[in-house]
Target: GTP cyclohydrolase 1
Amino acid sequence: MEKEPNSPAHTDHLTGLGPDDHLPPGLRTPLRADAFAKPDEEKIEAITGHFRAIMDELGLDLTDDSLAGTPRRVAKMFVQEWFKGLNPEHRPEVRLFENRYEYQQLLVERDITVFSCCEHHFVPIIGKAHVAYLPGKHVVGLSKLNRVVQYYARRPQVQERLTRQVAEHLRHSLGTPDVAVLIEADHLCVMSRGVNDTSSSTLTSEYGGRFQEDAQLRAEFLRQIGK
Ligand SMILES: Nc1nc2c(ncn2[C@@H]2O[C@H](COP(=O)(O)OP(=O)(O)OP(=O)(O)O)[C@@H](O)[C@H]2O)c(=O)[nH]1
Ligand SMILES: [Zn+2]
Model:
């Protein structure tokens, strides 16, 4: 029997929480309310069919042994890799440790790899994120900073939203407003089409708490990331 998308059989898959429920509404990635009604495998099946239709429309021979598997490859890539950050199951838990050593200075995690996707053209955005915070009673497990960047990057994005989502998530998880995020990235939509400019890049930043108030602290962060 065919199941309705919202029937109880699917409730295990529904977390009841959207991927961005912890963010202010304006910062959430625009998603339909029923975005998680369908399990990933069903999404992959459906996208495979849609992508096959696109290739077919381009006149490609889908019986060719090199092309035959492409629709499913692309569908898996979208659901399991490029857009995995749309699924709240992949939201990282940010682990904190007591700051027994009373480390009070700037902590910078720099050159975090960013692979994202332009939501206007669906082509890659490739760059680096630099994240900093001032520890209080707690310090964060370093890799969680990379994971938070990856979670928000792995979606259709604009760079401004990505920057603010990461900053807001860290403010929330670390329990401090003293957070800085700077992202530098190349947009393939600017490089490979349209204006075809391969030398420009885009920098976005967000400064909270003491990073906002203290120009010297901001300058120290920028110096440490080589800006
Ligand atoms: N603000 C912002 N714009 C972006 C980002 N990524 C891509 N864009 C821009 O989104 C815009 C979409 O503009 P449109 O005029 O609707 O699209 P288009 O005709 O393909 O534009 P061109 O790229 O100028 O050819 C383009 O100017 C892109 O450069 C981003 O992260 N932030
Ligand atoms: Zn684009």
